[in-house]
């Protein structure tokens, strides 16, 4: 089948949107951690990485403001090339000390962790047995 034809004929998302149950790309109007406001309704956010609600904590917000003032709004690249800040190294050092381990390597997301760690550990002809919901695909 022609890939473009397949894309044009895909209607499942439109059908789900018409039912009012499409969960993706719904703008969050207010974010109070585990509770958010979407379309004027306060709902429990079960789909974010903000499990502890720390993004709204006053100390975390204050630290973020200070970091933006010092470093700007983002890194200039990936950690591998030009995106490592002294903050990353300090946090890795502190976490390693806390966990009583030689070193720690931070990743921004679980997906990046899997992409960074698994290819490093797994070589040709190795096998990985993994849960289907591991964010690798």
Question: What features would you highlight for this structure?
Answer:
5 helices; 3-stranded antiparallel β-sheet; 137 residues
TL;DR?
By secondary structure, the protein is mainly α. Helices cover 39% and strands 7% of the residues. The chain has a domain at 1-73.
Which secondary structure elements does this structure contain, and how are they paired or packed?
Elements: H1 3-9, H2 12-18, E1 30-31, E2 35-38, E3 41-44, H3 58-71, H4 86-98, H5 110-121
Antiparallel strand pairs: 1-2, 2-3
- Terminal-residue CA separation: 23 Å
| Helix share, percent | 25-40%
**Compute the gyration radius: what is it?**
20 Å
Query: What spatial order of strands do you see in the largest sheet?
Result: 1-2-3
Give the number of helices: 5
- Largest sheet features: 3 strands, antiparallel
Helix and strand string, N-terminal first?
HHEEEHHH
How many E-type strands? 3
Mean pLDDT: 87
**Backbone shape:** extended
Strand content: 5-15%
Structural class: mainly alpha
Extract low-pLDDT stretches: none
Structure description:
This protein has 137 residues and is mainly α. The chain has a domain at 1-73. The protein is built from five helices and three strands; from the N terminus they run H-H-E-E-E-H-H-H. The model has no long low-confidence stretch (mean pLDDT 87).
């Amino acid at each position: 089948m022609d890939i473009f034809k397949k894309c044009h004929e895909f209607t499942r998302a439109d059908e789900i949107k018409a039912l009012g149950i499409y969960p993706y790309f719904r703008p969050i109007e207010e974010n109070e951690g585990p509770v958010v406001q979407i379309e004027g309704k306060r709902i429990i956010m079960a789909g974010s990485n903000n499990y502890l609600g720390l993004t709204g904590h006053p100390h975390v917000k204050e630290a973020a403001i200070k970091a933006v003032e010092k470093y700007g709004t983002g890194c200039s690249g990936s950690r591998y090339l030009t995106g490592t800040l002294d903050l990353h190294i300090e946090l890795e050092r502190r976490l390693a000390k806390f966990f009583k381990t030689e070193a720690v390597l931070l990743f921004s997301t679980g997906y990046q962790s899997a992409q960074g760690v698994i290819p490093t550990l797994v070589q040709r002809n190795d096998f990985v047995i993994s849960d289907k919901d591991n964010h690798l695909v």
